[in-house]
Amino acid sequence: MNASRAPIQGFPRTPTLVAVANAVEIANTSANAVMSYTPTGNVLIRATVSLTVTTATTTVTLSASWTDPNGGAQTYTWENVASVPIGVRLELPIVVAAQASQQVSVNVTAGTANQVYVTGALERLM
Hints:
By secondary structure, the chain is an all-beta fold. Helix content is 0%, strand content 60%. The chain contains no helices and nine strands.
């Protein structure tokens, strides 16, 4: 087996960072888009997110929304009005097929303003 294989044509060697949230404070109790990206072509996107809660336990809804080229509008929910204690909560990354010209976004709603912070990234994989 040859260990020095060339990458498959059309696939970058490393993911491309397309959106970042760096300790974004959720300053209200409405839905907040903390990261978004609109691809110019059909692509794979990896979303990685963590939450930090300060002061006291609060409820959090954390979701991603996108349009799949074959499946239409989609939503994935990591946390659905979940009671999240003080500390850092790491969420599992997701990989989605995103349709050209349709926004991919990560959205957060906090039960208490000014005590939830979001850190994460959207990466284009191909």
